[in-house]
Write a structure and sequence with these properties.
Blueprint: E1 8-13, E2 19-25, E3 33-39, E4 45-47, E5 54-59, E6 65-72, E7 78-85, E8 93-94, E9 103-108, E10 113-120, E11 124-131, E12 139-142, E13 148-153, E14 159-164, E15 171-176, E16 184-185
Antiparallel strand pairs: 1-2, 2-3, 3-4, 5-6, 6-7, 7-8, 9-10, 10-11, 11-12, 13-14, 14-15, 15-16
Length: 201
């Protein structure tokens, strides 16, 4: 990609395959990150956030909005979910008030359901869902003494893949969705960051 040197991560294609969203390490805010988009056709490189610490952009199903998590100024600082138009036409709006120090947006489904993982105090990482409406109350999908992270729902919306350490090390597991019944291990001794193929197979 023809971009100026920087540390970039969490790159995600828009539904049309033309634009990529990413988080970019800033050089002037003590290691904080901002959300950018890159149009692969025109080469337009656009900054979407300008303050705070912003991570893990996720596109809306229609490609017009971007979900991300950002650090909220508090004592101690916490992170919550925000949504902003991909064309910069309006300010970001805050969705959650979880008061968690770590969370990560992972998926935005066609029915408006958001998927994310949260580090719960005195327990570890759990998986939650929420509607893309301000003030919606997050609902736990999977909570256990183990860590469950990086959830991804299959294209047919019947299964969810995630990484978890209930077997001793990080491995990739499947469960049914939207109710977490059954449990199948996909990876070998180690695995993580699962992604589905477009056909879900």
């Amino acid at each position: 990609l023809r971009l100026p040197p920087a540390r970039r991560g969490a790159m995600r294609f828009a539904p049309n395959g033309r634009v990529v969203a990413m988080d970019v390490l800033t050089g002037d805010r003590n290691g904080e990150r901002d959300i950018y988009t890159l149009d692969l056709v025109t080469g337009t490189y656009t900054q979407l956030t300008f303050e705070g610490d912003n991570h893990y952009p996720v596109w809306s199903p229609d490609g017009t909005q971007i979900l991300f998590n950002a650090k909220v100024q508090a004592d101690p600082p916490v992170q919550d979910l925000f949504i902003k138009p991909a064309d910069n036409s309006a300010p970001a709006r805050r969705l959650t008030n979880l008061k968690s120090t770590q969370l990560r947006a992972t998926q935005w489904l066609e029915n408006g359901l958001l998927l994310f993982d949260v580090e719960v105090p005195n327990r570890g990482w759990d998986i939650f869902t929420s509607k893309a409406d301000s003030g919606s109350v997050p609902v736990p999908y999977l909570q256990s003494p183990a860590n469950e992270q990086f959830p991804q729902v299959a294209p047919d919306r019947t299964l969810i893949a995630y990484q978890g350490n209930e077997g001793g090390g990080m491995q990739v597991w499947l469960r049914t969705f939207p109710v977490p019944q059954g449990k199948w291990k996909v990876s070998g001794p180690r695995g993580g960051n699962p992604r589905w193929s477009p056909d879900g197979r």
